[in-house]
Each structure stands twice: as structure tokens, then as C-alpha cells.
Amino acid sequence: MASTTNSTTLLSTVDQGGGTAISVVHPDIILTHVFTRLDGPTLASAACSSSQMQALSTEEKLWRDICASTWPSIDHPRLRHVISSFPAGHRSFFSDSFPALDHRSKLKNSDRSSLPLELLSAVDVHYKGELVFSRVYEMETASEWFLWSPFLVDLLEQKESIQTPIRLLGEDQEWFKHLEENLTLSWIVIDPTQKRAANVSSRRPVSVQRHWLTGDIQLQFANIMAGDTASSEFVQCGVVVNCGGKEGGEMHLREVSLVMEDMEGKHLNGGDSLVILKEAMESGKRKKDRIGEEKKRFEEYVELKRESRERKRKRERALDMLCSLTGATLFVTFWYFILFR
């Protein structure tokens, strides 16, 4: 943005008659006329320029406004209260939630004794930079029912449909590509007890296609994470968005849901999902992916799944053949003893 560029230029230490430009600017002016024009990454960079900038950049209101403009869903009474309890308030929350989560290292801790008792979700969908859907979801995670049932967070009721200003236009492939480039989704999971958060969405869709049964447009966002190597090397934290509507008309959101799947396509239960999400929030790296990198990573994961299924089929065929040979050998041996003893 232009204001960010101008403000960054102002923050540079340009020599002006033996002094630096920023050193003679009153802190209130920096706060109200410079820092308020910066986005999160630029403000974080400015904080590294000097001890004075670092001290000024810790102002809670700055980060609260940045977080609210980046993720409108967090402007919710419950979330405002939870985020205010983070170690550095909204600054900590921004550090946890931006940019994308990258957690593909082996799990360090699979202990279930300290799993979150509650999980909050803050979800925002933007089209061409404009907000089209925003929702907060609170989920109790301590019950036995949750821990052993398939993990699923469904933001919409069964027959709920959210109208959007997006108009369905063009041929399918052309429109699918348009959605890949212009529709973004943020899904931040928050542990209110441990004061940690992570954005588990791929931001842009990794797959757009027609649903084979309903004909709805189905967008898939995915974050590939480290799994429990005893059962699955990687797992897919996937967000599914189903959209309906007629060509030329407005697009409606009919499903926005989060699931966790292993490499065999099986849904993880709540307990296993919490172990992975907790580890991701605490140990996952936050890195900015280049456009297309998330989709490439997803396609590599799909190829790994295909190879894993092929290896499993080969093992099963080999086992079937071994069982058949064993059965035939026993049959021949049995009749040999019957006929020739």
C-alpha cells in the first residue's frame, strides 16, 4: 500500500545535518501519523530499526487495529477478552497467526494430559480483498464424545445458506481459476487456556471443482502437517467450502467446515486432532509462502497418498497370494497323507 511505503521511507535513518530524521520526530507523531499507516509485517520490521521504535511499536492499540483489519472475525467480545490475555496481547496473537503455519516436523509431544479444554475458531473469507463471510465458533473439547468422534467443525447449520456479492460468471475452468486467484480464507484456531493460536488455512484454494453429486462448486483449502508417524506420516488439515448458485446470479456459501484426515483419507478423531493442533500452535513455524507454493505442497501430498495406497495394494496382493499358496499346499498335503499313507 502507498501509505506503508511512504511511512517506511520516513522511518529510514537518513542523515539530515548530523542527525537522523526519525530522532527529531515526536513519539506521538510517530504513533498517530506513521505507525497507524503500517501493516503488521512492516510495523514489525520498523520495530527492529531502533530501541525507540521497538518501544513505540509495542502499543497495544496499534496491534489491536491491525489484527481487526486483517481478521474482522476477532472483533468479537469473547475473542477480544481471550486475546487480551495473551503474553503481549494482540501483538502475540498476530505473531502466532501471521503468516501461514508450516508444521511438517516430527511430533515432539503426543501427551494427551494437557490438551486444550476448548478450541475457538475465527474464520474470514475475502473476495478480491472484500470480506464476504466472517464467523467465530466455540467448541468444547474435553468430553469423551469429542475425543473419540471424528473431528469436524461445521460453521453452517444444515440448511443455512450465506448470500455473497460474488456473481457466477464464465465457463467452469475459467471461473475456477478466477476463484483460486481471488478468494482467500483464514481459519485461526485458538487455545484460550495456553494463549496460543495458529492459522491452519492455506489462504488460497488448493483445489476447485464441481461436487460430483450436488454440482456445487467445492473449494478446498489445505495445510499439510506432521502426523503421528505410528499411523500416518502426514495429515491434512482441510477446509471445505461449498458454493451454490446459478450462472449470472449470486454465489451462496452452503458449507464451511474443517476436518483432519490421515494419508488413507480417514478422518482423525478429536483427541488425535487436538494433539496435532496443539503441537502445531506451539512448535509450528510461521512463514510466508509464495503464491502457488501451498498448492504445490498439496499436490505433492496427494502424490504421496497415491504412492502409499499403491504400496498397500501391493502388500495386500502379496499377502493374498501367500495365503492362497499356503492353502493350496495344505490341501495337497492333506490329500497326500489320505491317499498314500
From TrEMBL:
Coiled-coil intervals, chain numbering: none
TM helices/strands, residue ranges: 318-338
One Pfam family named in its UniProt record: F-box-like
Keywords associated with the record: Membrane, Transmembrane, Transmembrane helix
Residues of the F-box domain: 27-68
SUPFAM superfamilies, A to Z: F-box domain (SSF81383)
Endpoints of the signal sequence: none
Annotated InterPro entries: AT3G44326-like (IPR045283), F-box-like_dom_sf (IPR036047), F-box_dom (IPR001810)
PANTHER family reported for this sequence: F-BOX DOMAIN-CONTAINING PROTEIN, F-BOX PROTEIN-RELATED
Protein name per its UniProtKB record: F-box domain-containing protein
Organism the protein comes from: Morella rubra (Chinese bayberry)
Lineage: Eukaryota, Viridiplantae, Streptophyta, Embryophyta, Tracheophyta
